[in-house]
Amino acid sequence: MNEFELIERFFSRGSRSSSVHLGIGDDAALVAPHANCELVVSVDMLVAGRHFFADAQPEALGHKTLAVNLSDIAAMGALPRWALLAGALPTADESWLAAFARGFFAVAERYRVELVGGDTTRGPLNLCVTIIGEVPTGRALLRSGAAPGDDIYVSGRLGGAALGLAALQGRTTLTSDQLAHCRRRLDRPEPRVGLGLALRDIASAALDVSDGLTGDLAHILERSRVGAIVDVAAVPRSPSLDAKLGGAERDLALSCLLAGGDDYELCFTAAPARRNAIAAIAERERCRVSRIGTIIEGSTLEFLDGNGDAITAPAAFDHFATA
User: Fold this and answer.
1) Average pLDDT estimate for 115-119
2) Per-residue H/E/C for the chain
């Protein structure tokens, strides 16, 4: 297959919504956002050997490639609409492409995202999605709105994906059931799109936890010019971490929980007066939401253990760090 045959066979879809005036096939797409909305645009790159194993199951990789981008849109309180996909592929393997497309479009259809363009070339395996969403003008969730006294929340449970990666790398051992659960968290993250939409006008600041809580929460503090205190015992964790946190592998478990990355949950802040509203949203969205700390004046980020003693938090994932 040449490039155009590949695109037509695996990534073109016959029908499109009225919002897509021109889709795949021209030099660029033409899309129409709803009236009185701002466009929300984000891009993420996934590189084999850096963000996923080169022999990753292609259907799961298709799922993850789009899901991690949807997580960024969710963190802005935006509605995802369109995507562009660029990929460098070692070969035009038809069975690999079919499985990858199956995983990608399963997520796209669930969240009503339309693929409107992209690019392909031969090269080391590298996948890049540009995601475009929309939000009513002036109502996007930003990192810069946290204020002293605000509560800090996180959705879901943290650490499972990182623990699964550690097991696959031989740094720890898990039961077969634990590994299956953690691998699903690693390979098939679920973006919190519904939660992000519901938090619009409720949360004061938000972002997605992709590189680890220690690093990502610090971004909110930097943009909002505030500090924070986090109760580590209150941070929701993968059940597989519980025994390890109390044993010889405590350092590994703490690193997975606070700095492992690949969770794609939402971390957000809100005034204490919003607690009942947030509890109602969590119930409606069927999504666990946990209050883990407080925004304070200053610029420090402090993590406390169950006894109230400060602990040294592990560093978050660095995309340029050497192995």
Assistant:
1) 90
2) CCHHHHHHHHCCCCCCCCCEEECECECCCEECCCCCEEEEEEEEEEEECCCECCCCCHHHHHHHHHHHHHHHHHHCCCEEEEEEEEEEECCCCHHHHHHHHHHHHHHHHHCCCEEEEEEEEECCCEEEEEEEEEEECCCCCCCCCCCCCCEEEEECCECHHHHHHHHHCCCCCCCHHHHHHHHHHHHCCCCCHHHHHHHCCCCCEEEEECCCHHHHHHHHHHHHCCEEEEEHHHCCECHHHHHHHCCCCHHHHHHHHHHCCCCCEEEEEECHHHHHHHHHHHHHHCCCEEEEEEEECCCCEEEECCCCCEECCCCCCCCCCCC
